[in-house]
Amino acid sequence: MEKNDDNEETIEQHEEPEVKNEYIDKLTLELFMNRNNYNKYLAKTDTKMFDSQREYKMKLKKYMVEIIDITSELIENPENPPNGEIGSIFIDYSKSIMKFLEMKELEQSNSFYTSDNNKQEEETIFDPEKMDENRPKWSSHKVKKVYRNGFFF
User: DSSP of 22-46, one letter per residue?
Assistant: First the structure.
């Protein structure tokens, strides 16, 4: 706090650093754009990022069989990883997958998300089967209402 000539305390005004919109824009594009469109956008605007993603995908395809083999071995014998880094990352990876699968099971067991395909029916305003429900219980004939002069008969 500063004191001015009148011995009154004033609050210093600090300018907050501006949030860079480029990070927000990047995040928005990543989350809301179609992946194919986002890749096309990256190819035009951020060639370094596009090249690194393309290189990652190429290496993933190249080493796919070896990655699957190592993963299978770790599932069978998690105590003997090829190195410490892979062992600790595999633990986190497998826990994440287990959590995902448990959530998926929970979602499927929740009656809100389940649908009985045999009982799926579209709601219509004038469903003939439901219109039959409007018949009075004491008669087999439908009730007809006539509107005259502002009254139902």
Answer: HHHHHHHHHHHS-HHHHHHHHHHH-
DSSP conformational letter for 134: G
Contact of 1 with 11, CB cutoff 8 Å: yes
| Domain of 31, in residue numbers | 19-52
DSSP summary character for residue 141: S
pLDDT lower than 70: segments of the chain: 1-20, 113-153
Alpha-carbon gap, residue 36 to 121, rounded angstroms: 36
**Is the same domain home to 48 and 67?**
no
pLDDT digits (tens, 9 = 90+) for 95-112: 999 999 999 999 888 877
Number of domains in the chain: 2
